[in-house]
Structure formats: C-alpha cells, structure tokens
Amino acid sequence: MIPFMDLRAQYLTIKTEVDEAVGRVLESGQFVLGEEVEAFEREFAAYAGASHGIAVSSGTAALHLALLAAGVGTGHEVITVPFTFVATVAAICDAGARPVLVDIDPKSFTIDVTRIAAAITPRTKAILPVHLYGQTADMDPIRAIADRHGLVVIEDAAQAHGAQYKGRPAGSLGHLACFSFYPTKNLGAYGEGGLIVTSNDAFAGRLRLLRNWGQATKDHHVLAGFNARMHALQGAILRVKLRHLGRWTDVRRQHAARYNDSLAGADVTRPEEMAYARHVYHQYTVRSRERDALRAALAADGIATGVHYPTPVHMQPAYASLGYKPGALPASERASAEVLSLPVSPELTDAQIETVAAAVRAAVAVAWRPPPWSL
Ligand SMILES: *Cc1c(COP(=O)(O)O)cnc(C)c1O
Q: For the domain that residue 332 is a member of, what is the CATH number?
C-alpha cells in the first residue's frame, strides 16, 4: 500500500521539536496571535522575500483579506483561472467582486498570459494568478499588463511555498501573496492557517486591522473587520516546520526527477518545469486521456492518487450563475478530465516512487493499447 501522503509519519520525524513547541505555547497561556505568531510572520516573510507577514486563520481568509486590503469590492472584477481550488474564486465573491475567468496554459497549468489583456474591462481591479501544483505563473507579463492598467496583482501561492520565478521567491512576485498552511500543503499546520506577505506598508497595516475586527487599539474599531487570527499553537508548529521545509522540498524535487526519468517514453504526459521556474511539486501531476482507467489500475495495485481538480470552478453548480457554458474554457476542461497526481510527499522512499512509476508504465503499456495482433 502506498499512501498519497502520511501526515503522522512526517510528525514522527520532528516529534521532539514539535512537542517542545506545543508545550511552550501551553505554558505561555497566550493562545491567539502573540510572540510565536509574530516570530513566524517575520521568519516566513523573510523566506518569501517580502517585508511583512500577516498570519491569518486559513488560506481562504488570506485571499479574502488581501482582496479587501487591495480595495477590491462591489462592482469590481478580478481576473483568475477556473482550474484551481474553489477557494480562489470563492474569495473573490466573498469580497463582493465578480470573478472573470481566463483559461490556463496547458503546459504549465497556470494562467494563459496571452488571454489576460482581452479580459480587462473598466471594472477590473486585480489579477489573481494561481501558482498551481507548486509552479509559479509567468509573472513578468502579468506584472507588465497590471502596471499598464493600474491593477493589483495578488499571488495565490497556497501551493507554492519556496517556489521561484527567475530566481525570485513566490511571495515577492505580486503586490500581495497568499499562502495556506492547510495540513496537506508543502508547509502544513496541525489545523488551519494562512498568511499574507507584502512589501507594501499600507496593505500590511490594513491587513493587521482586518484580521482582528478592525481594532486599532482596544475597543477602537477603525475598519469593519473579521476574526481571522492565527492560533499561537499553529504559529509555533509552523516555525518548527519551516526549518525543515527546504529539505522536504529538495526531496519532492528528487522524487519528481525520478518520476521524470522513469516515465520517459511511457504513454503519459509528464509535468513540465518551465524555463522560468523552480517547481516545488506540491503535486506531481501527469496527464492521460485514459486518466480514470489509469487511476483504477493504480488503485488495484494499492497506490493512492489524487485528481486536482476533477471539475473546473466554472462548471461547479455553485458558480453556474457566473454564466460560463461548458466549452467556454477548453484548456481547463481538458485538464480536469486528464490530470492525475501521483504520490510525491517527502516521507515516501525512492523505492516507493520507483514502484509507483513501474505501476504507471505497466498500466499504460497493457491496459488500453490495442493488442499487437489487432494492428
Ligand atoms: C488550499 C488552497 C486554498 C485555500 O487554502 P485554505 O487554507 O484551505 O483555506 C486556496 N487556493 C489554493 C490554490 C489552494 O490550494
């Protein structure tokens, strides 16, 4: 049995440090925000190449508050992709704005930068590119279009801790960037968590207010805010885990390189690391026209896989009112039908990665090729 991921196994490798940090928080009596969270904000902002970190309660809260801090609200449009986790689009709606969906580039699975200009209207306020699977969007053209039209760029970096674009870290590429620490992410809390990084002092100030009921000083509320504060336990745990993230990312990249070698010539499309990118392989995602058969064959071999995401957001019932018809965003729709994520978590051994690759090769070689006598 090869699991997709094993969060308990990862915990056991860092148990002493985590237990010590948890004990320290319990002894401190400070359970929300506080010193541990502030230290984590500084450490993560430095890691992401930005001057401020604002820790919040989830990646979704990070997106919602980043949009509000950037001035997005009713009557505005925000450009993003349909091939993402639903939270990207939900956060735009939560901010009161309308998501305008642009198709993806089928090679990188990120926003097709050649289609952005045509989606801009007088109501456009921001562009929200998603660094899907751990690879950044093509940010230079996005920044150029945004600068030309006076738009804010907000990175959805929920899957891209430590990813780089032309040597610069995810988090330093837009005006604001949003990270998630949901347990399954490359840097995962033991509960919910998120963080916004920015090098803009005004955005940072507004975010600190928004996440804490808009409270400037005790009982003085200067903005209509929210309860979106990070728990001290999560801050302390994330500080421990951040120290291991570089090593875990290296192992993910080694696993990806092993898959790339092992699957060369097999009848699946391997993920492509773009020339501009350092991919951190939150997911190692192949494409196959026979995705469901491949997934079933691997399951029969005891190998867990994932589909990220089987339905693009514009085809979800909850977003039918946006008015996109099937066929409107074809690269996203095709990707949803073809993608399959193989296990790539750092706790897996090289031998397990080889086992998965061998199972993929065997499945695509025998399962649906026409038998030789029929040719
Ligand atoms: C996980 C994720 C989010 C939401 O983060 P939560 O912490 O689960 O709220 C947003 N966008 C993308 C691309 C994600 O993968």
A: 3.90.1150.10
Ligand 1 centre distance from Cα of residue 180 (Å): 6
Give the pLDDT of residue 206.
Answer: 98
Spatial distance between the Cα atoms of 70 and 89, rounded to a whole number of angstroms: 16
36 near 239, Cβ under 8 Å?
yes
pLDDT band at 212 (very low <50, low <70, confident <90, very high): very high
CATH number at residue 39: 3.40.640.10
Q: Which residues span the domain enclosing 273?
A: 245-369
Whether 19 and 151 share a structural domain: yes
**Residue 275 is assigned to a structural domain of this protein:** yes
* Cα 215 to ligand 1 centre (Å): 26
CA 324, 330, 335, 336 dihedral sign is positive
- Residue 30 in any domain: the answer is yes
Pocket around ligand 1 at a 6 A CB cut-off: 58-60, 84-85, 87-88, 130, 156, 158-159, 180, 182, 192, 194
For residue 105, being part of any structural domain is answered with yes
State whether 339 and 306 are in the same domain: yes
Centroid of ligand 1 to alpha carbon of 183 (angstroms): 11
What confidence category does residue 373 fall into, taking pLDDT thresholds of 50, 70 and 90? low
Clarify whether residues 119 and 133 are in a common domain.
Answer: yes
Q: Among the three residues 211, 239, 267, which one is the final residue of a domain in this structure?
A: 239
Number of domains the chain is built from: 2
Q: Using the Cα atoms of residue 11, residue 23, residue 196 and residue 58 in order, give the sign of their dihedral.
A: positive
Residue identified by tokens 């997911």 is: 283
The DSSP string of 90-136 is HHHHHTT-EEEE-PBPTTTSSB-GGGSGGG--TTEEEE--B-GGG--
Checking if the pLDDT of 375 tops 70, the result is: no
Residue 113 tokens, joined: 């930068």
Give yes or no: residues 80 and 22 share one domain. Answer: yes
- 41-84 pLDDT, tens per residue? 999 999 999 999 999 999 999 999 999 999 999 999 999 999 99
* pLDDT for the residue 368: 55
Neighbours of 370 (CB within 10 A): 7
Residue 374 domain-assigned (yes or no): no
Which atom of ligand 1 is the closest one to the Cα of 84?
13
Average pLDDT, the chain: 97
Distance, CA 294 to ligand 1 centroid (Å)? 27
